[in-house]
């Protein structure tokens, strides 16, 4: 960044502009801004004189307030920022930190709530599946018991018992005629 007479003129013009905007007087001219002790590293101090009395200087508090009010315009004129263009004794006008439109606690709350709802839905569906599986297994057992007609015992096929209607073994069935009634 080359600092030359043109850059000095632009700086003086921006300070004069800031003073005019701050005090609402159109009496501050570029010639009222004086640069002193300019170094190669673009370091200097400046004073603003009163245009009505060319000898007295404007109070530092007024100059600080004018620069603070128009700091953005001065930075933009030199294509710099508050980090690269420093005014000593004048606090920088950094933009406030960006706050999200949604508070952080609300985002965390939403995530936790979604996890809880997902867990409840999972438990409900897994319970329904277990219930259906249990009903299906009991129905299959009943079907197997009904389908078995011939069973094998010791390799000999036997008749299946009709468990629902019962089965009468004829060997032990007694004839009513053989026995006398009591």
From TrEMBL:
<protein>
    <submittedName>
        <fullName>TMM27 protein</fullName>
    </submittedName>
</protein>
<dbReference type="GO" id="GO:0051957">
    <property type="term" value="P:positive regulation of amino acid transport"/>
</dbReference>
<keyword id="KW-1133">Transmembrane helix</keyword>
<keyword id="KW-0812">Transmembrane</keyword>
<feature type="transmembrane region" description="Helical">
    <location>
        <begin position="104"/>
        <end position="128"/>
    </location>
</feature>
<dbReference type="InterPro" id="IPR031588">
    <property type="entry name" value="Collectrin_dom"/>
</dbReference>
<keyword id="KW-0732">Signal</keyword>
<keyword id="KW-0325">Glycoprotein</keyword>
<keyword id="KW-0597">Phosphoprotein</keyword>
<dbReference type="GO" id="GO:0070062">
    <property type="term" value="C:extracellular exosome"/>
</dbReference>
<keyword id="KW-0472">Membrane</keyword>
<feature type="domain" description="Collectrin-like">
    <location>
        <begin position="1"/>
        <end position="182"/>
    </location>
</feature>
<dbReference type="InterPro" id="IPR042944">
    <property type="entry name" value="Collectrin"/>
</dbReference>
<keyword id="KW-1003">Cell membrane</keyword>
<dbReference type="GO" id="GO:0005886">
    <property type="term" value="C:plasma membrane"/>
</dbReference>
<dbReference type="Pfam" id="PF16959">
    <property type="entry name" value="Collectrin"/>
</dbReference>
